[in-house]
Amino acid sequence: MNPALLMFSGSTLVHLSPVDLVIIVFYFALVLGIGLYLKGQANTGEDFFMAGREMTAWVAGLAFLSANLGSLELMGWAGNSYKYGILAAHWYWIGAIPSMLFLALVMMPFYYVCKTHSVPGYLKLRFGEGAQTISSISFAFMTVLMSGINMYAMAVVMKVVLGWNMHFSIWVSAGTVAVYVALGGLRSAIFNEVLQFFLIWAGALLIPILGLIEAGGWHGLQAKILQNLTALNVPNPGSYTHLWSTLGNFNNNPMGINWAGIVFGLGAVIAMGYWTTDFLVVQRVLAAKDLRSAELAPIIGAAFKMCVPFIVILPGLLGLALLRDPQGHLLRLVPANIAWSPAGQAQGLHGYDEVLPLMLARYCGPGLLGLGITALIAGFMSGMAGNVSAFTTVWTYDIYGTLIDKNATDEFKVKMGRWITVIGVVVSIGTAYIAAGAPSIMDYVQALFSFFIAPLFGTVLLGMLWKRATPAGGWTGLLAGTLSSVGMYTWVKLDPTAVRYVALSMDAQDQAQNMFRALWCCSICVIVTVVVSLLTRPKPDSELKDVVYGLTPIPKVEHVSIFHSPVFWGTVVAVAFVILQIIFW
Amino acid sequence: MKSGSHLSIWFFTGLCLGVNGALIFATGIYETFHPPVNKVVLYDLHANVWWGGVLLILGVFFSLRFSPARERSRMAGKTDPHTS
Question: What is the reported pTM?
Answer without folding.
Answer: 0.85
